[in-house]
## 1
Amino acid sequence: MKVGGKPYRTIWLDDDGESVVVIDQTRLPHAFAARTLLDAADAADAIRTMIVRGAPLIGATAAYGVAMAMRDDPSDGNLLRACDDLVATRPTAINLAWAVARLRQPLLHAPRASRAELAYRLAAELCDEDVAINEAIGDHGAAIFAARWRDLGETKPLTILTHCNAGWLATVDWGTALAPIYKLHDEGVPVHVFVDETRPRNQGAGLTAWELKSHGVPFELIVDNAGGHLMQQGEVDLCVVGTDRVTADGSVCNKIGTYLKALAARDNGVPFYVALPSPTIDWATDHGADVPIEDRGAREVTHIWGRDAKGSRVEVALAPEGALARNPGFDVPPPRLVTGLITERGVAEASKEGMQALFAAKAA
Ligand code: MRU
């Protein structure tokens, strides 16, 4: 996507052809700054501290982390250590383990002298694939959303509610949930996006709002608790979110708060779509209840980061000192609340059979 008229992906190789450059998402929306990752430890740190985040992008970053590890020491021991360290950075998004596994096997079978070159090639292929997948999600989603707009009589902009950030910042490019929105907007279909702020880290307020503003897509930021009310008022035509892991039964794990939006959507007859690339499907886990849910600690709940009047990035306390807080990072709407899974191969019912119909070979 373009920032200030210049096309960007979220991850690319530096001029030396070895170091990896990412957009530092902890500094958005107030500063658009690149950050160079020099080795596998830097890549792991960037994922852990959420300099990069979003399921597909943490997979891509881990892939380049493996590549930098192979450049530094292509031994089996270092390969396995780097893979384990990278996978351990965050527990919930399956794309991370998927990306690392995609490099680990071929590298273990390759001669040591060619491992670095192979690893960089595989990481680059994974990134290119992510871009193509997300663009296809955009096309399939845009067709469904345009049909909804036509069904509603085309009298006003299509209103879409989204939660967290499943835009281009969460992927290598395009995004998942936001890809259909960008496509529709670019095709001239009027859209209006309700952006959940997404406490506690505010990926909606800081990242989705920044992305949509940069692209010129009309939106309003809302507090997390406003979505249900807007749905009751008939102000939301559809919801679309991303996901960090879809289990074999069609349960969709996503940022905390997604479940409540899915419930409100069902109660109000609002279609609730989940957009995902196929690497987000975890065929090996049968039920949503078995997804490991990340706990990022109390401080994200008791404190908040923002920019002060002087332009400095500051953290302020929200709660009384010593307040106990719980911070589960994700929840898992069950398949019965999902209208459809928008994938690169089209739309599937949120069920094993639905997903198998599109991805038969992978489901075996
Ligand atoms: O904790 P985050 O910011 O990595 O969580 C991101 C999300 O929950 C996204 O909605 C999900 O990864 C889908 S991204 C295409």
## 2
Amino acid sequence: MSDFLQTPIVYLKGVGPSRAELLQKELEIFTFNDLLFHFPYRHLDRSKIYRIAEIDAATAYVQLRGKITQFKLLGAGRTQRLCADFTDGSGLLELVWFQGIKWVKESIKPNKEYVLFGKPSAFNGSYNMVHPSMEDPEQIQEKQYQHIMPLYSCSEKMKARGLDTKAIMKLIHALVVDVKFEMPENLPAAIIHKYQFMDRKTAFRAVHFPKNLQELTAAQQRLKYEELFFVQLKLLRYKMKRTQLVNGIQFEQIGPLFNSFYQHNLPFDLTNAQKRVLKEIRSDMKRGIQMNRLLQGDVGSGKTVVALMCMLMAIDNGYQACMMAPTEILAQQHLHTVKELLKDLPIKVELLTGSTSAKARKQIDADLQSGALQLLIGTHALIEDKVQFQNLGLAIVDEQHRFGVEQRYRLWKKNKYPPHVLVMTATPIPRTLAMTLYGDLDVSVIDELPVGRKPIQTIHKYDNNRLHVYGFLKQQIGLGRQVYIVYPLIDESEKLTYKSLTEGYGSICLEFPLPQYAVSMVHGKMKHAEKDFEMKRFIKGETQIMVATTVIEVGVNVPNASVMVIESAEKFGLSQLHQLRGRVGRGADQSYCILMSSKELSNDARLRLKTMTETADGFKIAEVDLKLRGPGELEGTSQSGILDLRIADITSDTAIIEQARNDAKELLSLDLNLEQLQHQALNRYFAMYQRNAKWGRVS
Ligand code: ADP
Ligand code: MG
């Protein structure tokens, strides 16, 4: 990095101690380099002059050309302000100054033409503009750079102290245009050539002060690419190094258990997607390199059976396998499913959760260490240090979004060689986000549902239609189906939502009385045994309605349940709604998802509900979710720091992400340690980049 760019910001012409402090506090700009990375959020084409008559409520920054006809000094003391009538022939706009009144009166002349720039706001039925910037049209001609003017974000505090978008523009201009300094290239020449990128310094100049829109786009492309390239280089290098350094267990054979299961136990044909994914996992596990794979598959796509078949591969090769689930209910359900699928295959399976008795636990520990216990299913209890395997070969983590990355890696310590790790999730992660967020994992996708599934009909109903909805539920129950009714519960300890759940339960019991109907309830505050009891009653069909909180969200599988009612659906996030809906549609019957909401909906909530009624595609839903919430809000991303992007946008720059990833992969496959001559500059930059907490802050 050139030392010059590391100069503290206070030394920049026009900054000084008080502005420097403001820039540090408000924008985390400490050095010249940081200022360069304060990219404009948008540019204004100053070749366009608006007419006053064109201004409406949607108008943002505009440029006008006209004359002031008269000044008025209004108010007194602290409310004193200077107003002016400004006209361009098409209409009248009031200009207002609260500060610098004396200066304005002295330097701005009535009846002289000015080009005025600012943001109009509606006031008393017409528009005004507070503190416009006024320029002599002739001077503008000279200031070439301002033709496409950058707009910068700045806080209210900064504006109040005169450090507005225009002041920032002047500072950056002083730096990139007026000062001479070197900015070494950080991309390999081959890549620069491949994309015909402009050089680095030009890109920084042009991203702030483009000569034309074409140049702006080219500069943005280069800087976005650069940003994403280094993210990928870091992730991929980490991954490739790990696979080189860490020996993996080798599953050499497909053995008798797997074959017997495939021939005799598998109750259906695998979908093509399931087969493909199994092949991918199989080839990972036999090459002697530790597997770290993310298996994505929409709810109901059949991940469990894939998981089981992978565990059989491990057991056939003399290793143990385990599967972790985020909740006790789900762990039990997995145990149930697995036992049912295995039938009489000679495999010892046990369940280990927080509520396993001390006695049972003792036996499990002994059997794990002797190797007699081949397959262990459980909750977080599985990764406690005291759980010791004889030779764990494969660990499967279901619904990983509830398991932290750290927990995932605790699994590594269970063996001399780390076991293969397969992380399964039904939370659809848009491809590009997965490439960035889980860039160190390999990804397999089950993108196909088993045949014969009927699409779930999704309907949005307002609360005042509740009686109709109840009528519909009765009709469905009359046909022998079962129903979930879910209440939002953001925080299990939250009193209010708990109340709405129990109240809801009360009114549902009234509406669906015994002996004709039976209603179950499950929520996070119940004792485990109670929960279990209620869940089992529902699974057995002894109750027709399950009133629940989102504990039901993950993985629960009751094929006869064909209606999902979600109360206060506007309070749920999109991915959660999608997960909940995935609890139905698992059997042969037509299934329904009914989203109940009040009539007062925010725009976002309306879009969420609309998306749910329009599509069942988990990936589409995830895309909308990503757009609505931004990547920072998505589970697991906020801590990652990986998405601390300064210029690239993970939702819209998908093509660049793919290019950058492919290029980084190719480069590393030839030169993992970046030792070749042509990678020296890259190597220097990369070393600094890795040291830096804030990824963008390297010149
Ligand atoms: P998820 O991917 O959401 O964990 P599950 O593994 O619970 O899905 O599978 C959902 C349902 O689909 C289960 O009842 C399972 O037996 C069934 N299933 C899985 N694969 C197939 C298949 N290839 N054909 C038919 N049914 C399948
Ligand atoms: Mg599942």
